[in-house]
């Protein structure tokens, strides 16, 4: 019901040409509506042909929002490395603080965003909080996940994505707050599912028209989301209150301690870390890392499991490489990565083929811009069409095929980076969890494939490589048998 309502509104809306030096191709909202509806199937067929017609830069005008869609990797890189293109759409309705302003990293812009981003990047890079490293936190989850899969015996597992989500939420929660749950802990389940539900379900609507929630709070699903945000914020607030009581200056146990220390040190009234505002930014940043970090990594891993069971010869090559490095006598560690070109190629191809963030996260232009002869007014929203770039036949040979070897040298011994592969986006706002995400993908995938043969369950649903319609692309239901190969 909700979607067909959206489609009707979009189809009735008018396209409009704006004054420009070069003349814009404006795309009808009928097409855009189709794009919203079929995000998940954009990979193949007609829609991409349509895009070829519109060219690398086209414009959508709808209601109060101007949007430019960029489908060329060079253009995305040029634009996103320019600070003038580093703004964000106004998402204050989704902010955990709900005081009519935005906080944290993902939705802010300007000096506070820069300050928080710099601090968080440094913490993630230098990470070695408390008793262990980030790798230790991830490996605890890898082992518990493997134990859970082993307990299933040879029964089909139909909730692969959920298992990865719980494991990733837990690893991130431990890094941020030092608290670790069991993967079947009720509190963890609640935290993982409630907060995401509404936002992910409403996917395309919110992505394209965040302002619609003010006009149709119930229809757009906003009322439900708001309740979830309030509940989730209480959850985020708890460890902050506890950490304030127990923290010691000499030793940062986790990200929350490090952030609170920064708040204590800050005297500049304009800083993002000052006093109460600092605390609100801490709560929002904890939320940002949760939302940006767990669903993305979990979805990518579930795609990889699906590819591995659909292409047993790829699984076999992957397992052979793991064995050649570990003798299957120990778990893999991040330091093995450099010696595992096939694994790197498999991860790269998984990121390309799944393109879980097909349009990255929209940017906003902070002041009027002239780009390649086009006039782009302040507040225009820029969408990087990563999905198109990752399947562009001008860049990739046989893009529709899942083929890790495209990222290897001809002798198969060296991993070759490709500058058109930008699943973490690029430039000033490039994903700040990229290296954590890459470590997680590597550790989960290699240790699971070392332990199990992964077999597609022919009695379960088979939706090919179609994805659910959601903010993050995630595979449609499938089930898999994990056969212990080391028992
Ligand atoms: C496979 C996993 C992941 C993918 C594909 C991914 C992808 C992305 C993309 C496309 C963006 C938008 C960049 C832009 O606006 O141009 C982004 C932003 C972001 N990501 Fe990730 N991400 C992943 C995992 C993570 C993890 C593990 C974390 C942290 C724990 C994280 C934290 C963030 C944050 C905080 C931002 C906002 C950056 C900003 O606005 O300055 N991501 N990510």
From TrEMBL:
A GO-annotated cellular component: cytoplasm
Entry superkingdom: Eukaryota
Cofactor requirement: heme
Gene3D superfamilies: Cytochrome P450
GO biological process, one term: xenobiotic metabolic process
UniProt record similarity statement: Belongs to the cytochrome P450 family.
Protein's recorded name: Methyl farnesoate epoxidase
Taxon lineage: Eukaryota, Metazoa, Ecdysozoa, Arthropoda, Hexapoda
């Amino acid at each position: 019901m909700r979607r067909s309502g959206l489609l009707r509104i979009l189809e009735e809306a008018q396209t409009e040409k704006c004054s420009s030096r070069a003349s814009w191709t404006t795309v009808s909202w009928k097409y855009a509506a189709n794009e919203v509806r079929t995000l998940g199937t954009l990979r193949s067929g007609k829609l991409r042909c349509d895009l070829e017609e519109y060219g690398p830069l086209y414009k959508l005008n709808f209601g109060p929002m101007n949007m430019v869609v960029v489908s060329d990797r060079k253009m995305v890189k040029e634009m996103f490395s320019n600070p003038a293109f580093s703004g964000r759409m106004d998402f204050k309705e989704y902010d955990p603080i709900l005081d009519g302003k935005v906080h944290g990293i993902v939705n802010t812009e300007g000096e506070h965003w820069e300050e928080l981003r710099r601090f968080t990047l440094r913490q993630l890079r230098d990470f070695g909080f408390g008793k262990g490293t980030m790798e230790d936190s991830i490996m605890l989850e890898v082992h518990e996940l493997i134990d859970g899969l082993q307990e299933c015996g040879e029964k089909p597992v139909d909730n692969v994505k959920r298992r990865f989500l719980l494991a990733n939420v837990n690893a991130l929660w431990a890094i941020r707050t030092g608290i670790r749950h069991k993967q079947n802990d009720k509190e963890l389940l609640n935290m993982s599912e409630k907060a995401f539900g509404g936002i992910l379900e409403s996917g395309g609507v919110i992505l394209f028209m965040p302002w619609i929630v003010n006009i149709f709070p119930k229809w757009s699903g906003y009322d439900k989301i708001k309740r979830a945000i309030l509940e989730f914020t209480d959850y985020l607030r708890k460890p902050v209150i506890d950490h304030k009581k127990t923290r010691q200056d000499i030793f940062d146990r986790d990200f929350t301690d490090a952030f609170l220390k920064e708040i204590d040190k800050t005297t500049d009234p304009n800083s993002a870390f000052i006093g109460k505002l600092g605390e609100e930014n801490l709560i929002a940043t904890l939320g940002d890392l949760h939302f940006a970090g767990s669903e993305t990594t979990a979805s990518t891993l579930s795609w990889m499991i699906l590819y591995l069971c659909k292409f047993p010869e790829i699984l076999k090559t992957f397992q052979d490489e793991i064995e050649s490095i570990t003798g299957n006598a120990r778990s893999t560690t991040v330091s093995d990565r450099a010696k595992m070109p096939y694994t790197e190629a498999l991860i790269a191809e998984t990121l390309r083929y799944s393109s879980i963030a097909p349009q990255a996260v929209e940017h906003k232009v902070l002041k009027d811009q002239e780009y390649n002869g086009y006039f782009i007014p302040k507040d225009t929203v820029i969408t990087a069409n990563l999905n198109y770039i990752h399947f562009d036949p001008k860049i990739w040979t046989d893009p529709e095929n899942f083929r890790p070897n495209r990222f290897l040298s001809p002798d198969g011994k060296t991993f070759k980076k490709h500058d058109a592969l930008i699943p973490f986006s690029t430039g000033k706002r490039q994903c700040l969890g990229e290296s954590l995400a890459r470590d997680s993908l590597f550790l989960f995938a290699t240790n699971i494939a070392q332990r199990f043969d992964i077999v597609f369950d022919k009695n379960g649903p088979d939706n090919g490589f179609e994805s659910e319609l959601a903010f993050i692309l995630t595979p449609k239901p499938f089930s898999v048998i994990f056969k212990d190969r080391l028992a």
